[in-house]
Fold each of these.
Amino acid sequence: MIHCEGLVKIFKTEDLEVVALQGLNLNVQQGEMMAIIGNSGSGKSTLLNILGGLDRPSAGQVNVGGWDLLKIRDDQLVEYKRNTVGFVWQNNARNLLPYLSALENVEMPMLLTGKLDRAYARQLLEWVGLKDRMHNKLHQLSGGEQQRVAIAISLSNRPKMLLADEPTGSVDTATSDQIMNIFRQVNRELGITIVIVTHDLALAGKVDRVVAIRDGLTSTEFVKRNPNLDLASIDSGVGALQEVHEAFVVVDRVGRLQVPKEYLDAVGIGGRASMEFDGDKIIITAPKTLEGENNNES
Ligand SMILES: Nc1ncnc2c1ncn2[C@@H]1O[C@H](COP(=O)(O)OP(=O)(O)O)[C@@H](O)[C@H]1O
Ligand SMILES: [Mg+2]
């Protein structure tokens, strides 16, 4: 369903280039329900927006359901978004219409594409457990219920793939479990491929596979080293841990590079570091002065 190879996304602003994805590889099988985990700023949303056709890649290969998203024309992209992808965000309330009922909210995108299917709209609301609340106005529903309406809406165009960016980011644990169960159910019943982006490691045990992303690279090495990750909770992801990637960092035009926080923590580098050049290596270490002296200086 998804094939990314050497995927690069660079955001250019006035004086700086941010390399959000730096040659990312990812393969997702049709019908798979998988999670992408990673810290804030690691490029998860950037990846999802590219997969969803909301943003264009800069370089590399990205093919989803037979579409080449690097070469796709604008008019094809509209068709791609309409027929291939469903999207769920962390905070969907903004995209919902508060004074319409749950059912009317699900029917709205169907009306917009001229494919109103009332029976299917009801079916979707039943799937997300809102059979008895479908005639309630949206503003009468709780946050978790609204999130479930949003999931029903994301499925209203019968997409082949569902992309969810932090879908449980602003709900409590019980609602989060419920949402994950809904994803599992639609994955089984509709055979739909589901990619869930999260920084919540607890969700890892509820999907078929977990891929970790760090600094715009999918890196299984990260999974292995992250002390917070309970490896026992990742079933089929464990096989992938055998392979270790070399981690690359990008050095920008003025020579800045980002050192992974865990490296800095491991050698105890806080605000300052000392740097040596030995002819073919650059060595970054914790300053030789004592912490206390640093504090006095600053
Ligand atoms: N539109 C943009 N313009 C410039 N930089 C961006 C833009 N979107 C994201 N970035 C940068 O790209 C990196 C990855 O961001 P993002 O994909 O949102 O990470 P995540 O979703 O994992 O928190 C961050 O350094 C972020 O600041
Ligand atoms: Mg994000």
Note: Residues 108 and 116 are 8 Å apart (CA to CA).
Amino acid sequence: MSEKIQTIPIAKPWMGEAEAEAAKRPILAGWVTQGPEVAAFEQEFAAYVGAKYACAVSNCTTALHLALLAVGVQTGDEVITVSHSYIATANSIRYCGAIPVFVDIEPQTYNINPMLIEDVISDRTRAILVVHQIGMPCDLKAILEIAHRYNLPVIEDAACAIGSEILWDGQWEKIGKPHGDIACFSFHPRKIISTGDGGMLTAKNPEWDKQFRLWRQHGMSVPDTVRHGAKQVIFESYPMLGYNYRMTDIQAAVGREQLKRLPEIIERRRYLAQRYQEKLGDVPGLKLPTEPTWAKSNWQSFCVRLPEKCDQVQVMQAMLDTGISTRRGIMCAHREPAYSIEAWSCGIAQDTCDCQPGKCQRLTESEQAQERAIILPLFHDMTQQQQDRVVEVLKELCQV
Ligand SMILES: Cc1ncc(COP(=O)(O)O)c(C=O)c1O
């Protein structure tokens, strides 16, 4: 009888009875959206990251959209960001009618290279949108120094960085305080805690927080929580164009349970990441991710760069054939058909950048990371045997 291959997934949320029980609460209480669970989740999340204000929304893409609107990004503006990110980062800029201007990454951290930001600041630049890619904090100190000099707001795409930390004035602080102006988080199941889908905005400025609360609920002047509790008839109005970017109470109830698990999840992921480092450290040509001394990643993903002689697709296929799921390095938005528009797939005018389809001379590190890196399985209840299997198969493939 043939032995059934046990698949090792790329990621898997860590949830259980506690989350299932929590989801029951709003269902049985009858208040299932934008109610007390959402309010409690916001408070607990804010306390966890050390933020004054946190506003829950439907996902991180909608959070990014609202963050950009809040800092005043409008049609025709430019926003400096990375191409090397999930496409939602760049898409959120285009939702505002603005142009993403892409900057290359540092090859070791897969994060924006701060040294390249100043070169692309123009009189149309309205904001800088940085990403803490796959949980690794980007160099906020260097980025904020430039942003302050040019008086530009900084939005942090912290979709992947719940629980990641940065050394700030001698103290370890959670990403999302925020250190920039606004930070945006995701609770998609690929992230280290999940509400199915979901997002959170943390902001420095109370005015922005107020604005998010209006925008996320159609621009409605009196929230339904207030109307529900009112002793007199009140009518709401809609003074601005709003959106339906609400989080449900069912999601928030699950999120509150997930938050309780977070310290244990991070500890486990840091342990597994360290184990990958130890077990893969001696593979010739294989480049492992590095954590700067001022950063602590939550290791949302563990991304390795393959030796030159290895073909990315062949390695991924061979791993899949033995039941191990991997993913290619982070995508590059400028290489996608949705960005092959007019003259600006990389955001720079044609007379200063001669982009070819799918290739930009300014984004070579991003392109190489996409082509040469793979993401290995990493999830909370991954066993040592599963991890050893990944290591064994990858080592074999790197040594042929
Ligand atoms: C860096 C980054 N930004 C934004 C998003 C979008 O998050 P969501 O799916 O919650 O909209 C993702 C999701 O994978 C992401 O990885």
Note: The CA atoms of residues 187 and 194 lie 4 Å apart.
